[in-house]
Specification:
By secondary structure, the chain is mainly alpha-helical. It has twelve helices and no strands.
């Protein structure tokens, strides 16, 4: 019996993950424009408060029968989603976006290592780590990095790892509806922080167009795409693929902000992309994730 390559089966989730990463970078650039008006807490709250009703309207989770045994993973998914967003935005107040993204990736990378059972996986992880270290623009900084900001970015990475773990469990039970239910939990968690910090400023109509763009590009599009990827890819492969995130951030800076890439940065991007593609090319067909439930 001939084993088929897993690449065709991975084409859809990989494509959706790439769309997710590009969308997140556009949303991150827009989100920083909200900080002067509502702060990091308000921006995170607006993002989730807009994201949640949109997802509820799209997925209509009330049409599905909620299984009691799946409730803990749904709640954990929503809590990790909310804390991940809040801590990441808080980190952006004091450290650059590129460094925050690289530090945040420690979470998915830890998930990959913990789920790995093969030497080849460790090789791809090592290559991804080397690329990520090269992407850290530490030499160009005129002052030391803020330790609080770094800690918040690492915390966001930890909750990103939990988001992957619990999102896969929730998605296996409820498909895309898990995004809507998890988003509701996240919004309920983060909204009080935004209200306490920004107050009436959250109701200003002048910021809502930008807030809507942030919610769409940073949450609605990427989380929906990632839910498909989470239920169609092995956890360790998903984790390594997410190593493309800092590379996409660097490329987005070149395209949208006209930032020049140094030879070292180009080498780093190639290393990360090679690690991601290598992880997919070498995964055995037997480890393919089972067919998830219908998304609608």
């Amino acid at each position: 019996m001939i084993n088929r390559s897993p690449l065709p089966a991975f084409a859809l989730p990989i494509g959706l993950l790439l769309i997710s990463m590009v969308s997140v970078q556009i949303g991150a650039a827009a989100a920083e424009g909200l900080f002067p008006s509502v702060g990091a807490e308000g921006a995170a709250a607006l993002r989730l408060m807009i994201f949640s009703p949109i997802m509820l309207a799209v997925w209509r989770p009330w049409r599905r029968r909620l299984k009691l045994r799946s409730l803990p993973s749904l709640v954990a998914y929503g809590l990790s989603l909310g804390v991940m967003n809040l801590t990441f935005y808080l980190s952006l107040r004091t450290i650059p976006l590129g460094i925050a993204v690289a530090l945040e990736f420690a979470g998915p990378l830890a998930v990959t290592v913990l789920h790995s059972r093969r030497l080849s996986d460790m090789i791809w992880v090592g290559l991804a780590v080397a690329g990520l270290l090269l992407l850290l623009p530490l030499k160009g900084l005129s002052k030391p990095l803020d330790p609080v900001g770094m800690t918040l970015a690492l915390a966001a990475g930890g909750f990103w790892g939990l988001y992957i773990i619990f999102g896969q469990k929730a998605g296996a039970e409820h498909g895309g509806a898990a995004v809507a239910m998890g988003g509701l939990v996240a919004a309920l968690l983060v909204a009080p922080f935004g209200i306490a910090h920004a107050g009436r400023a959250l109701l200003s109509t002048t910021i809502w167009p930008m807030a809507l763009l942030v919610a769409l590009m940073s949450s609605v599009i990427p989380y929906s795409c990632e839910m498909v990827g989470l239920t169609r890819l092995p956890t360790r492969v998903f984790g390594i693929l997410m190593s493309l995130e800092p590379a996409v951030a660097a490329l987005s800076g070149f395209v949208f902000l006209h930032e020049r890439l140094s030879p070292v940065q180009i080498l780093a991007i190639l290393a990360v992309i090679t690690a991601s593609l290598g992880a997919v090319a070498t995964v055995p067909a037997a480890t393919l994730a089972p067919e998830p439930p219908p998304l609608i």
